[in-house]
């Protein structure tokens, strides 16, 4: 019977997994340990099965990025290029390429991921979103395939590595800014209710209103796409109400630009007639007219941390799940002012 990895491990007084990592020339193993293991291999006359080893340690040196919908739509929002820039900075440094997976529907996205995983095209995946009851997450857990979520999982939270902000707290703080300015008719414009980021930001908004003893009105809640056009549609809905809001919490900067444009069509100015606050602090928020008061969620850092976590999981299958919260900061600009005296 031939010499096995277990025999080498016993001779070198290390674990069999350490021998495997030495064969793969893993950077996680010290040079002293590598020398000890190689010495044991030589003494025992161990010759690794090259074909089996290539299958066992096969690496595509690629990370898959999963968009929430088609790239055409997603890349209209500056959040995605910026989070991808953060991911790319780490991937490039560690010699990983990026593979983007998109689709026009949830079914197309899922089929694309199945091809990536089963075809061995990527070593792990980063989901650039978190959706309620996501079949992609269920599939990856079942396959025990390395992945990281940017956002908060809606289930199995302790089993899934994720990188997020404290969106509930951030939304509560930015809503309180409007309340502190005297606003009582405050609306919320968010993305789809199946997205965890929308749910968390809505929850923070509602908590702020409740603690201030402000009545929460269903007609002041609008859910639409995280696009400029989504913001325009929301304004059309809110400002046909008998008592439209004087302040609006908007879950995304790009939507805010659509809100400003549509308010102008209604003959309303920000912040003189309506105060708005937003999220993400993308570059457009600083050059918009007026510049937006917004929550800086440090998008680049979200991407960089997600890439670090995934590569750790790829190189060490026993890496435990972790939760990383990237701090946020409110950037105060010129899109808010005190509520009208007659509110």
UniProtKB/TrEMBL annotation:
SMART domains: HTH_LACI. This is LacI family transcriptional regulator. Residues 3-57 form the HTH lacI-type domain. The keyword Signal does not apply. InterPro entries: HTH_LacI (IPR000843), LacI/GalR-like_sensor (IPR046335), Lambda_DNA-bd_dom_sf (IPR010982), Peripla_BP_I (IPR028082). Keywords: DNA-binding, Transcription, Transcription regulation. SUPFAM superfamilies: lambda repressor-like DNA-binding domains (SSF47413), Periplasmic binding protein-like I (SSF53822). It comes from Melghiribacillus thermohalophilus. One of its GO terms (molecular function) is transcription cis-regulatory region binding.
């Amino acid at each position: 019977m031939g010499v096995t990895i277990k025999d080498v491990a016993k001779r070198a007084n290390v674990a069999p997994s350490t021998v495997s990592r030495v064969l793969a020339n893993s950077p996680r193993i010290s040079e002293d340990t590598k020398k000890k293991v190689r010495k044991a291999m030589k003494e025992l006359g161990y010759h690794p099965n090259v074909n089996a080893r290539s299958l066992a340690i096969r690496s595509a040196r690629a990370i898959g990025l999963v968009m929430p919908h088609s790239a055409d739509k997603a890349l209209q929002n500056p959040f995605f290029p910026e989070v991808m820039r953060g991911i790319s900075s780490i991937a490039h440094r560690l010699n990983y390429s990026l593979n983007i997976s998109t689709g026009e529907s949830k079914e197309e996205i899922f089929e694309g991921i199945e091809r990536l995983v089963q075809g061995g095209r990527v070593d792990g995946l980063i989901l650039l979103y978190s959706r309620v009851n996501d079949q992609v997450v269920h599939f990856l857990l079942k396959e025990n395939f390395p992945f990281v979520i940017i956002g908060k999982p809606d289930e199995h939270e302790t089993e899934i590595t994720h990188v997020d902000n404290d969106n509930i707290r951030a939304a509560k703080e930015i809503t309180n800014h409007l309340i502190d300015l005297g606003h009582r008719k405050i609306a919320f414009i968010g993305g789809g209710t199946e997205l965890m980021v929308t749910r968390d930001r809505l929850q923070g908004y509602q908590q702020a209103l409740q603690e201030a003893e402000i009545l929460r009105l269903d007609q002041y809640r609008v859910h639409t796409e995280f696009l400029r056009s989504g913001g325009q549609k929301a304004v059309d809905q809110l400002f046909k109400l008998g008592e439209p809001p004087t302040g609006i919490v908007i879950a995304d900067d790009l939507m805010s630009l659509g809100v400003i444009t549509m308010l102008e069509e209604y003959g309303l100015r920000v912040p003189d007639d309506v105060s708005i606050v937003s999220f993400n602090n993308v570059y457009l928020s600083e050059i918009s007219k007026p510049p937006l008061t917004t929550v800086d969620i440090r998008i680049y850092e979200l991407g960089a941390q997600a890439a670090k976590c995934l590569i750790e999981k790829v190189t060490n299958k026993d890496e435990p799940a972790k939760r990383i919260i990237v701090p946020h900061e409110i950037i105060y600009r010129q899109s808010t002012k005190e509520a009208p005296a007659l509110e």
